[in-house]
Design goal:
0% strand, 133 residues, mainly alpha
Length: 133
């Protein structure tokens, strides 16, 4: 049972991160719209790919060092929450829309961070327990 629980905490944050990278990468294709030159469109596309690239870097760190990666994901989510809220509130003047944006954009990062941290602690506890025998 312990191994199944550990396995869930190992794979769920990785899968959520990969899914987020894929979804955010798809949004980058919005950069290709009329009214811009090819060079401008490519530049906009690359800028839109920077968030998925950053998440990919965090995922690579978390894959090897779960506690460090988990802390990074959590900090980014917490720091971005008020920024995302304020930006969306100023654009929509709706608290619900602003909170919804935070839930969609920042909450997954916080969740992934917490799951990586839990996984890291479970693995440390398991390793420590194995050394006691």
């Amino acid at each position: 049972i312990m191994k199944a629980s550990l396995n869930k905490f190992h794979w769920i944050p990785r899968m959520i991160s990969i899914l987020a990278i894929i979804i955010l990468s798809l949004f980058a294709f919005d950069a290709f719209s009329s009214g811009y030159t090819i060079a401008e469109q490519i530049g906009r596309f690359l800028v839109h790919l920077s968030p998925p690239a950053i998440i990919g870097i965090f995922l690579a760190i978390a894959w090897k060092r779960e506690l460090v990666g988990g802390i990074l994901f959590t900090i980014v989510g917490v720091v971005l929450s008020p920024i995302i809220y304020q930006h969306n509130y100023l654009m929509s003047h709706s608290i619900i829309t602003a909170i919804g944006s935070v839930a969609i954009i920042a909450f997954p990062s916080i969740l992934v961070g917490i799951l990586f941290i839990i996984s890291g602690f479970k693995k440390k506890k398991r390793c420590k327990k194995n050394y006691e025998y």
